Amino acid sequence: MRASVFWDLLAVFAPLSLLAFGGGQSIVADIDxxxxxxxxxxxxxxxxxxxxxxxxxxxxxxxATLVGWKAGGWVGAVVASLALFVPSSVxxxxxxxxxxRFDGHPTARVIETALAPVAAGLLVAGAVAVIRASSGSxxxxxxxxxxxxxxxxxPKLNPxxxxxxxxxxxxAIGGPA
Length: 177
Description:
By secondary structure, the chain is mainly α.
């Protein structure tokens, strides 16, 4: 295994770590783009790894570990995982210290309000990347839009229920699951 693969994994996942507003799902589009651009996998392999990361218990950012594993074996999995979790953890700790210090300050509320649409936009970009990576058919888009409408209507509904229902509907009408 070339050492440059590990440096590439570090160079891809460390910056993404700092962009993951809203969780690991918010950087799926970038992970997809980078994994394909570096030649670590095909689009079909990415979709398979994405499905595994969603089905497995644990954090949604498990996708980074799987991409690292595909690119560089078990060492690649460790490098990608550490590159994704360490920078954001250090930043989160530093921000928590600052946030406590300036709790209640008007600027803190403005920052909090300003970051909400950023997180929402990153989540939508990730969803669009996954839909495009699948068949991208009208059936898939329609099911995704209905699932989004259900989440908007009932935001406290367990996402697994909606995902399972979407998969069953997709299988029943003959579209890709």
